[in-house]
Design goal:
Length: 242
């Protein structure tokens, strides 16, 4: 008969994967972010695939307010849920805003709420003052003209005039969240452009960046071969791709 100890579920490997410790970055965060912003998400996504990570893109219906928006930052998460009560919401949001770090990308998981505007004019102004680089919202926004007027980059699902107060509540911030199939941890790196938002695990941020820069350089050479009229077969044999 199998002993109880042997039959217990073993979760050490999953815990290590899901709850990776915060590692130091060998370069300044703003330099890391600036270098990612010189790239594009497609190249970075291809590199993540080389690392065996094929599901790092957030759902495709999270799109930028303007096509030319491109931002990278360290993840600061917000988690909310549908909730009609109001008590405590304002002070909770105040604590959340005061905890927002410089050079962050705010990532908001809304608990499936599809009726509220989770982001707006004042949230934008508050984030800018704190040095946030952008926001990725798994939900709605309002005050669109005012957000655009402040020059802030936001990715979201929809627009509505419905304010969040009395419709949803912030439950927690700077905690792990899940958007689509992507587990987002505070301290990870979020990079977003016209093709959507992409999560880079913090522990791989430098390795992925350096390989992405190499790939972007290589693609310039491949494009030159293509525009020169070289055979597609020849290009593949030289290490190119399509």
């Amino acid at each position: 008969m199998m002993s109880v100890e042997k039959s217990l579920m073993k979760l050490d490997k999953l815990i290590a994967l899901r709850e990776a410790p915060m590692v130091d970055l060998p370069i300044a965060l703003n330099e890391l972010c600036d270098r990612y912003e010189a790239l594009f998400t497609s190249a970075v996504n291809d590199v993540l695939r080389e690392f065996g990570l094929c599901d790092q893109a957030l759902p495709h219906d999270i799109t930028p307010l303007r096509d030319n928006m491109k931002k990278c930052g360290v993840v600061f998460t917000i988690k909310s849920s549908k909730n009609p009560t109001i008590s405590g919401e304002m002070i909770g949001r105040a604590h959340m805003l005061d905890a927002m770090p410089k050079d962050c990308m705010v990532v908001w998981e809304t608990g499936g709420d599809d009726q509220s505007a989770h982001w707006g004019e004042i949230m934008t102004a508050s984030s800018i003052v704190r040095g946030a680089r952008g926001a990725v919202v798994d939900g709605g926004l309002r005050d669109t003209a005012q957000i655009l007027g402040q020059g802030f980059s936001v990715w979201n699902k929809y627009r509505t005039s419905n304010g969040a107060l009395s419709r949803c509540k912030v439950e927690a911030f700077n905690v792990p969240v899940r958007i689509g199939n992507v587990i987002v941890n505070p301290g990870d790196i979020m990079f977003a452009d016209i093709d959507g938002a992409l999560l880079i695990p913090r522990a791989l941020a430098i390795s992925v960046l350096e390989r992405s820069e190499e790939l972007a350089f290589n693609e310039k050479g491949i494009r030159e071969w293509v525009e020169r009229g070289d055979s597609a077969v020849d290009i593949i044999e030289r290490g190119g791709y399509f």
